[in-house]
Design the sequence.
């Protein structure tokens, strides 16, 4: 094993050189020496020079004010299916590939502790600014190597087990029902539009749902008297996303100079940490009062592992579990609203299981909703929350005929490929049928297993996948069971892309109550 200090996000990384692999029995898919020696050198990868990139992002440049998705599209148009974007202002270089064979090589060679560049500010805040709170634990999003593996192996049995997560279904359904009733109170009778900012309302639903899972607590955001601490947490969470994009994604000088804006960001981190910690301590004393019992909630189960792991997991769930589920839910609703025949088919499935609008959703009946599941999958194919998946190579690899040394950041551009007919026939159509097992739709299925990864892939796949699926499926069930939904926006739903891809602009649905 060799330690390479450079290239990565301030994390020295244990990489496997070609010599290390030869002298060990490590079970990684191997590429031959001949393949490596025949490949073109890393520095011959196409891509803009640093100077060119700076020029093009400045006013008047080709890439000025374009979002991440559009920037990637323009770069691919110019440089082809593999190119290198050199790091600016302390950021690392990133290789972009749009070749599914490369995705396969990457995932088959990621090892048991895949490395994905984390948010640099997370580690700084948790490890340097507040070590007394976090005790050296960075959390899943930003930890690497064995430190990541240790946390992940402890939380996997809780978070990745569908049965454990679905123990929360009844409460998640109550939250979805409350959301639906609140929507009804904001519906303009006759016109069926909603008098509110729909994105904000769905974000409230997502916050209420994930805080129930993470903190075992209802925040009351739908009522007239929401918990003040909860409102404060929600406000800080939303600020966190805006600021993280500035300091974790865009080039920034903060590692060298702490500007007043960065200091503000640290205050946001402090607020989130302090409020979360106070909720956890409240829950801990409640548990102590109740005495020893079998752990029921996700939080209780996490606390049984370790209080510090519970804290970082709760914070990571709150940070990763609001905009992701809110944005995906809106995308699913949009796809259903603009494809009324698919909406009808889904409603038929739901009505069979829930004969009355408010019939309870149970772990039993929710198992039999293949079309609902297929709608979510298809929506995530067309509009995932990230345009691709990121990994750092832990050994030298040949990608698209180029030598990519261990320690290189690689972005696999899954989304644009999943939206071409080459990999998904009739890719521009919303066809949930392509995900059904017993459907005569073999010709619609994916042509390559690596061209669909909305929750990532391998040991580092999204830990919140089960939670997200349960929450989104429950919300869609309640809305489709109670309303015919249509889209009345003048244009198609628009998206902005920063930390994640998120609906923006005019979000205009009509909710017509079902008789
Ligand atoms: C539709 C909703 C969601 C989508 C599409 C999504 C997608 C993703 C993706 C693509 C990754 C990177 C995986 C990889 O690198 O292979 C990820 C990681 C992660 N997600 Fe999600 N996510 C969603 C919801 C959630 C929720 C609800 C939570 C919290 C309960 C969550 C927590 C996390 C965490 C903690 C990680 C880092 C995992 C690790 O590095 O070990 N996500 N997610």
Sequence:
């Amino acid at each position: 094993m060799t330690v390479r200090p450079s290239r990565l996000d301030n994390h020295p990384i244990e990489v496997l050189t070609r010599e290390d692999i030869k002298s060990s029995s490590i079970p990684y898919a191997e590429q031959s020496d001949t393949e490596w020696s025949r490949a073109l050198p890393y520095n011959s990868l196409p891509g803009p020079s640093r100077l060119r990139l700076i020029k093009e992002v400045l006013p008047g440049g080709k890439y000025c004010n374009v979002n991440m998705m559009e920037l990637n599209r323009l770069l691919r148009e110019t440089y082809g299916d593999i190119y290198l974007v050199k790091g600016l202002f302390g950021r690392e270089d990133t290789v972009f590939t749009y070749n599914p064979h490369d995705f396969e090589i990457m995932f088959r060679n990621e090892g048991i502790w895949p490395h994905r560049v984390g948010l640099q500010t997370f580690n700084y805040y948790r490890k340097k600014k507040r070590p007394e709170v976090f005790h050296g634990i960075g959390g899943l999003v930003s930890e690497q190597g064995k430190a990541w593996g240790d946390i992940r192996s402890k939380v996997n049995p809780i978070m990745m087990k569908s049965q454990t997560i679905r123990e929360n279904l009844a409460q998640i359904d109550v939250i979805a029902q409350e959301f639906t009733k609140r929507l009804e109170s904001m519906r303009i009778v006759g016109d069926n539009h909603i008098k509110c900012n729909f994105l904000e309302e769905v974000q409230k639903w997502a916050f209420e749902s994930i805080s129930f899972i993470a903190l075992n607590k209802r925040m009351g955001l739908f009522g007239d008297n929401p918990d003040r601490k909860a409102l404060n947490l929600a406000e800080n969470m939303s600020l966190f996303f805006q600021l993280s994009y500035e300091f974790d994604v865009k080039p920034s000088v903060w590692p060298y100079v702490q500007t007043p804006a960065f200091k503000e960001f640290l205050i946001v981190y402090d607020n989130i940490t302090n409020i979360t910690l106070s909720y956890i301590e409240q829950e801990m004393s409640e548990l102590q009062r109740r005495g020893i019992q079998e752990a029921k909630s996700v939080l209780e189960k996490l606390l049984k592992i370790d209080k510090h792991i519970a804290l970082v997991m709760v914070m990571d769930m709150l940070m990763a579990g609001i905009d992701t589920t809110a944005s995906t839910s809106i995308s699913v609703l949009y796809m259903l609203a603009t494809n009324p025949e698919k909406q009808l088919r889904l409603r038929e499935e739901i009505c069979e299981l829930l004969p009355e609008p408010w019939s309870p959703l149970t772990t039993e009946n929710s198992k039999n909703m293949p079309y609902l599941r297929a709608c979510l999958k298809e929506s995530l194919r067309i509009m995932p929350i990230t345009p691709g998946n990121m990994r750092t190579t832990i050994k030298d690899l040949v990608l698209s005929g180029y030598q990519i040394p261990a320690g290189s950041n690689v972005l696999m551009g899954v989304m644009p490929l999943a939206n071409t007919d080459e990999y998904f026939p009739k890719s521009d159509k919303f066809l949930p049928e392509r995900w059904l097992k017993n459907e005569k739709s073999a010709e619609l299925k994916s042509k390559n297993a690596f061209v669909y990864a909305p929750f990532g892939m391998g040991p580092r796949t999204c830990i919140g996948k089960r939670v997200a699926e349960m929450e989104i499926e429950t919300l869609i069930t309640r809305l489709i069971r109670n309303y015919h939904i249509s889209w009345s926006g003048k244009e198609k739903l628009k998206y902005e892309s920063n930390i994640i891809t998120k609906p923006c602009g005019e979000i205009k649905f009509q909710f017509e109550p079902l008789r």
Remarks:
- The two ends are 67 Å apart (CA to CA).
- Residues 260-290 form the longest helix (31 residues).
- Residues 116, 140-141, 152, 210, 316-317, 320-321, 324-325, 328, 385-386, 389, 454-457, 460-464, 467-468 surround protoporphyrin IX containing FE (CB under 6 Å).
